[in-house]
Specification:
The protein is an alpha+beta fold and 196 residues long. It contains 5 helices and 8 strands. The longest helix is centred in the middle third of the chain and has 17 residues. The protein is globular, with a radius of gyration of 16 Å. The relative contact order is 0.16. The C terminus is likely disordered.
C-alpha cells in the first residue's frame, strides 16, 4: 500500500529502515532538539524510546507494521516521519510511536501519518477501532488526538520498567497513560484541517 501526498511518500518499513527509524524516534522524543517540539516527552523521560532490535522486531512481527514517510524529491534515505501499528484483536489495532522530524513538525505531516495508519489498518486488517496511549501530562497532544476524532476511554499504568525506571526514579509522580480510541467504521481521514 503506497501513497504519495503533497511531496511525501508512505510505505511499510523494512529491516533496513531500522537505524533511520531509531534516529527519527530519538530526535522526536528525546534530546535537545526534541525539547523544542510540542510533542516531546524529554522533560519527563531520558534514554532510548526504543532500540534498533526492538524496531526490527516490530517490523518482522506479522501482526504489526512500521509505516514510514520520505520526501518524494529525495533519494528516500532520510525519513520524515514514522509510526507503528499492531493488531490487537480481529477488529482492533494499536497506534504508537508517531514521530515527525523536529524540523518538519507543525506542517500537517502528523495528520497525514495518522490518517494513513487508520486507512492501512482498515484496509489490510479490517480494523474497526484504533487505540493509542498518551502520557496524561501531554495535554496539547491529547487535544490534537481529540480533534482527530479520538476519545479518552480509560487509563493504564505507566510502563516504568519498560522504560528502564521505577516510580521512585521517575522525574514526576503520578505518571499514567490516558487510553484513547476511535471508531474506524466511518469515513477515513482527519476530522479537521487544523495544523499541526
Amino acid at each position: 500500500m503506497a501513497l504519495d501526498t503533497n511531496g511525501i511518500d508512505f510505505r511499510v518499513a523494512t529491516p533496513e529502515d531500522a537505524p533511520g527509524i531509531y534516529r527519527l524516534v530519538q530526535s522526536a522524543f528525546r534530546g535537545q532538539i526534541s525539547e523544542k517540539c510540542w510533542t516531546t516527552a524529554a522533560e519527563l523521560l531520558s534514554g532510548d524510546r526504543i532500540d534498533v532490535p526492538g524496531i526490527i522486531a516490530k517490523i518482522k512481527d506479522p501482526s504489526s507494521a512500521m509505516l514510514v514517510v520520505t520526501d518524494s524529491d529525495t533519494t528516500g534515505a532520510d525519513l520524515v516521519a514514522c509510526c507503528e501499528v499492531s493488531r490487537s484483536t480481529a477488529q482492533q489495532a494499536y497506534f504508537g510511536l508517531l514521530s515527525v522530524s523536529p524540523g518538519r513538525q507543525a506542517g500537517g505531516i502528523g495528520k497525514q501519518v495518522l490518517a494513513y495508519a487508520e486507512d492501512y489498518c482498515r484496509q489490510i486488517w479490517g480494523t474497526r477501532r484504533l487505540e493509542l496511549t498518551v502520557v496524561w501530562t501531554r495535554t496539547e497532544l491529547i487535544q490534537w488526538y481529540i480533534r482527530r476524532g479520538y476519545r479518552k476511554t480509560g487509563e493504564m499504568p505507566f510502563p516504568f520498567e519498560e522504560l528502564g525506571m521505577t516510580k521512585e526514579t521517575a522525574p514526576r509522580e503520578n505518571l499514567y497513560l490516558d487510553v484513547m480510541a476511535k471508531d474506524l467504521g466511518g469515513a477515513s481521514g482527519v476530522v479537521d484541517e487544523e495544523t499541526p
